[in-house]
TrEMBL record:
A GO CC term attached to the entry: external side of plasma membrane
Protein name: C-type lectin domain family 2 member D
Transmembrane segments: 40-65
Subcellular location: Cell membrane
Keywords: Cell membrane, Disulfide bond, Glycoprotein, Lectin, Membrane, Signal-anchor, Transmembrane, Transmembrane helix
UniProt superkingdom: Eukaryota
Gene3D superfamilies referenced in this protein's UniProt entry, alphabetically: Mannose-Binding Protein A, subunit A (3.10.100.10)
Annotated Pfam families: Lectin_C (PF00059)
Keyword Nuclease (UniProt): no
Amino acid sequence: MEDKMHSADNIEKDFVPTELIKNSVYCPSKRHPGEPILKLHVVLILCLTFTVCVLVTFFVTRAIFHQNPSECLVPACPEYWIGFQRKCFYFSDDTKNWTFSQRFCNSQGADLVQVETLQELDFLLRYKGPYDHWIGLSREEGQLWKWINGTEWNSSFPIKGGGECAYLNDKGASSARHYSERKWICSKPDMYIQMRRQSPK
């Protein structure tokens, strides 16, 4: 009899009311103290990685285009000048002698054109039209042809005639006395090249 009573007492002690089970609230265990710091480190690493990627993309793009933002604000060549291969060319309407033509070009920050490539020569011959135009090539009597800047002509194209100053005609290059009058062609580097030369290295 006593054993049965002890068993009943044990059942009552182990019994938990159903209402308490239904209304019980789950209390999660406390977080590890280092967990927020770990998440913060992950966020910082992601932000740093993103920033580095943006900077690398910016500098690579800048290196590819080699473009100064200020270059976008100015035209490559002045008004009435024609751009070709990073040069600006002025084809005159007036006719003057070789000396006056060079002085005019100097007043524009330029020189009578110095032909550096056959492509440039083809461009000048096409664009000048049917008129003769002085170029920046001359010689002293019995001396070699030289450009305005003092460099010797490399014989890349023939020059006909016995004059001391060269000009372009419909067939190529020829020469005449410096006092005869013709149109002329000035040339100078375009604005992009000038700005790069002036910018500190």
